[in-house]
Write a structure and sequence with these properties.
470 residues; alpha+beta; Creatine Amidinohydrolase, Chain A, domain 1; 3-stranded antiparallel β-sheet; 16 helices; 16 strands; 36% helix; binds manganese (II) ion
Length: 470
Amino acid sequence: MVEGPASLKGKKYPAKQHARNVYAHLKEKNLQKAESSVFFISGEDNELIQYSDQNKPFRQNRYFFYLSGCPIPGAHVVYQPQRDHLTLYLPNIDWDDVMWSGLPLSLEQAKEKFDVDEVKYAETLEADLAIINFNLLTTDINKSNIKFASILKEGDKDLFYAMDEARLIKDDYEIELMRHAAKISDNCHLAVMSAVPIETNETHIHAEFMYHAIRQGSKYQSYDPICCSGPSCSTLHYIKNDDEITPDKRSILIDAGAEWDCYASDVTRCFPINGDWTKEHLEIYNIVLKMQKTALGLIKPGALWDDIHLTTHKVLIEEFQKLGIFKSEFSVEELFESKVSARFFPHGLGHLLGMDTHDVGGYPNYSDPDPLLVYLRIRRPLKAGMVVTDEPGVYFNPFLLEDTLKDPSKLKYINKEILDKYWYIGGVRIEDDILITETGYENLTGITSDPEEISKIVKAGFQKKFHNIV
Ligand SMILES: [Mn+2]
């Protein structure tokens, strides 16, 4: 087994404390409900692909994991706040399966491994639930718990609220997991930047990242890696990852993050294919870097994410005026009010990060009429213990900009001849994972974003010898 973080050796994932935290948030929201309820959550189970005897890729239910720390498929967890008691139910042993899969964890081993008061087999679950004289709140009725549907209350909004508020603030254990995931991603991004000679197709970038992630024990990625070159860098969630990287394309963008024990990292880096930045690519890169650093300078507890996001739009506007893409006869304020920057930086500045890549608790408003805010995934002040991504981007996407360029009220702000010099880049995004601390922030991402250093790393790759089997 590839070892996890040394700092967590001998420690257990703090499931019991998480259960208490959820209860505390529920109590604050609805005291009566909290006192009269028990939480029951079923984990994900293995599921066969239709007409096949192969399993679909397994991804543990995040709410279940939060209250158990248990990655095993087909398990359940019950928290009884009235007696501060957390019980993990493992799936019954399927003796026919032992031949194929080996022996599962015993009850004793599971008790040793997980931070719960009791471990039982699921065979006792029905009888155990039947004698609980409280409301049994659960996230959802599914294949694993349909048997008990008559006694479960699914989808309780206050329970979701309480779990999301608890998950929002990461404890030291969770932060160590995220630090570890981030470190793995640093190494993977460095490997990708260093292997340009063998990356002649976007697939090779994807493969290089995955190879180094799996080598470090991260079998699963937080999300499907986005590996693009040239104009494809303008597609925000490009996952085709199969275009040839021909010499006429100058830019690469890779957005990929390793996962560790269900905790995510989410990192984007851009680099020039041959190590030399073109004039236009570097200009845009430096704008995005400035936007990212401006945001970092404003990140601290109490700061409103809306304000930080909108400030980065102003940086974009000022810098676009310097390049001449936006006409200088207009004031920054007028350009800002016109919303013309929205289609060059169409997404939000960043999102919460945790077990989910786009983690819970941000309360986005996808029907916000303001195009600058509609895709912003955090709409609340920052608090110590949150982890957010700081990921501004600038894109030249013909599809996204079509409306802007056809609308005279928007086109009047743009020097089209100057804009036309930038399409080939596609886009630039720089993304780091940021822990909010009491005094400011800590950047969990360590891979360099300095354009000169990146250039050196890419060029050093050309000095290496690579042995490709295929
Ligand atoms: Mn992201």
